[in-house]
Write a structure and sequence with these properties.
Shape of chain B: globular
Low-confidence stretches of chain A: none
Low-confidence stretches of chain B: 239-243
Mean pLDDT of chain B: 93
Largest sheet of chain A: 6 strands, mixed
Distance between the termini of chain A: 18 Å
CATH class of the largest domain in chain B: Alpha Beta
Structural class of chain B: alpha/beta
Distance between the termini of chain B: 36 Å
Structural class of chain A: mainly beta
Number of domains of chain B: 2
Number of helices of chain B: 5
Radius of gyration of chain A: 17 Å
Largest sheet of chain B: 6 strands, antiparallel
Largest interface: A-B, 41 and 47 residues
Order of helices and strands of chain A: EEEHEEHEEEEEEH
CATH topology of the largest domain in chain B: Rossmann fold
Oligomer: heterodimer
Number of helices of chain A: 3
Order of helices and strands of chain B: EEEEEHEEHEHEHEHE
Strand content of chain A: 25-35%
Strand order of the largest sheet of chain B: 4-3-6-1-2-5
Chain lengths: 199, 243
Amino acid sequence: MAIISKGFSGRRTAGDEKLPPGQYITPDFPVLSAGPTPHVPLDQWEFTIDDGDKVLQRWDWKSFGDLPTETLTVDIHCVTRWSKFGTTWEGVSLDTLLANVKTDASYALAHSYGGYTTNLPLEDLRNKQAWIAFKYENEDLAPEHGGPARLLVPHHYLWKSAKWVHGITLMHQDKPGFWERLGYHNYGDPWREQRYWGD
Amino acid sequence: MWHVGKVIALSDETATARTINLEVLDWPGHVAGQHVDVRLTAPDGYSAVRSYSIASGAHSEGRVEITVERLPNGEVSPYLTQELAVGDRLELRGPIGGWFVWRSHQTEPIQLIAGGSGIVPLMAMIRSRASAGSAAPFRLLYSVREQEAVFYREELRALTNNDEGVSLTYAYTRVAPKDWPRPPGRIDTTLITNATWPSNIGATCYVCGPTSFVEIASSFLIASGHSPDKIRTERFGPTGDRK
């Protein structure tokens, strides 16, 4: 039974079906990161896909830039309860990056410059659901938002969209990432409001 | 799981910030630096939730204190800072977060850097240090607009006067007190070098404030030799980052 705060009316968003439960809309793009923003020079940047033992695919900034890109407009949802509608990104689809990778792994751990990690079922990275994004609203992705490139998995809370992404490790067994070990939900579906452990 | 908190005291820190002291009988306890979700429900059932840093130290059994800054266009903070009364009840969930925390078994030097209301979780660390009887040496650099915007002023004065293990440097951005050695202005590398631990002693650094402040402060720490993996950050909105 909820506790009623008389005199509280709030600022509601009239029945917006695009807004997951417990979220509010912001025109801002707040920044939340656990540590300092890494600054990765493009001539040292690389993105790899590995199986835990060996690197299966490797791109530097130039070869990554030769891959076909996609432009997408998506809504993003942060576990701290803000959602932002209609954000436009340019990036390379994980379908493209995984196209030549033979694997029977079921899970993936994205890892970033600066040491951040986050885990996802591999199937959540396939089928037009995930990108390595390097442009936001037609501009190079700013370092505080994850530039040069970040993972973008908009059907999960945004902590799964690892900033400063450096690579993806394919795994047979799931392994919780940084926030997933520190109290946040292992899967993080905004529509099921999977914010914290136990949700 | 949501807990019920009963407001047992309210006190204004500044013209726009209020400390709310809650009694939460089934509170599981927290460590310094964690936050709590606060849920308000309107008479028609509409509810809104926001996260607030916990200001009270660990070992404050059954008590949770938060300090809320009123945001000009906020949905929840105007109610919490203007309408809420002693005796009212709120719903709380938490504690949340396990990264931006200080635990009393940490013995290494600690550098705290606060921008504005970013002092709140750092105050929880200072209070936890005191209540645990910790000897870990703490330094706090507190950047604030002007004296009137300082939170917990008397308590900080008492703590730093009575305990040489905690030192405090204020940096004023708009108006400095009379005869203050440093003119008002944003933090800079000289200030970071003078007011923080030398980088070679292995301090853990906690930086909390608005995004732009945290970006600048942590980049100065790195430039002065601190290791990025010893710097923990907590950023909060609103941002000016409108795109």
